[in-house]
Amino acid sequence: MGIQRIESVTYAIDDLGVCVRFFDDFGLSLVERSDEHAVFVTRTAQTLHLDTVPSPSLPAPVEDGPTLREVVWGVDTPQELERLVTAAGRDREVRESADGVHHTVDETGFGVGLTMARPAPAPVAPRPANTLGSVTRWNTALEPITRVRPLRMCHVALNIPKEGREAAVGFYTDRLGFRPTDVVEPMGVFMQAPGDDDQHTMLLCHRPDKAGVNHIAYEVPGFDDVIEGGNHMIEHGWREARRLGRHTIGSNVFRFLHAPCGGRVEYAADMDRADEKYGTRVHETTPPHHIWALRTNRDQEAPTAS
Ligand SMILES: [Fe+2]
Fold first, then answer.
1. Closest CA to 239 of 10, 7, 25, 9
2. What are the pLDDT digits (tens) for 267-290?
3. 184 CA to middle of ligand 1, Å?
4. CA 287, 293, 299, 305: dihedral to nearest 10 degrees?
5. Distance (Å) from CA 292 to ligand 1 centroid
């Protein structure tokens, strides 16, 4: 099989206190904190590392300011791990650290790690929902979720330069076994890890034509979590980057926030699942960004219906 999921990510940051407050408000669990770094976990035991003094063994940052420095991918078996380390190391150094992570760099300059996947179970009970002919909630009212807890980092989106984009994608598809699901020629390539069901585990986006972190998405159980999570962040002073909507590619319901560690974070729910029957779809033009996004005209003066 091969890569199953994002296992950990590392950001190099300026202000540890602000970043810790951000991810605490976002709903991750703090498991380690010193003067220089902090570590959070998702409910499925992926780790997010925030370092003010990043390891000198990391590749140079691809952009100025706080940013993502490394994504470590979790692999299902030692044999697959060895195979991927060999494939990645055909033309570049791969260094193993004491914790068993194999570190290298992709074509753009982002750190790439490979290690064994160690998922923790996170049982999810979908909220009972009612519609005509399908009723699962009797004699009870829904209550607020109040504290949203992301289940997992479900995808990472990286910006890459236009020039050399085929090679940038090729590193992930030819060496690491990712499968392109949607190729949007003017924008980027959505890819699925072999052990993931989501329509995309990764996006390499060349539209801004420069390297940098675009966003990391965190799956939450449902729409209420996306809405309540975003509201909670706004109430705590964080800035929304994209209001509630549902994407066209992947169909996920989303809400984005600017992140002090660089780029943005996304609350995501209800993404399409895809298996090998979902071939690579090539789009010559960029599909609309979303199926729907919230609109309101309540603050306008006397709108006239047409
Ligand atoms: Fe996303």
1. 25
2. 999 999 999 999 999 999 999 999
3. 15
4. 70
5. 15
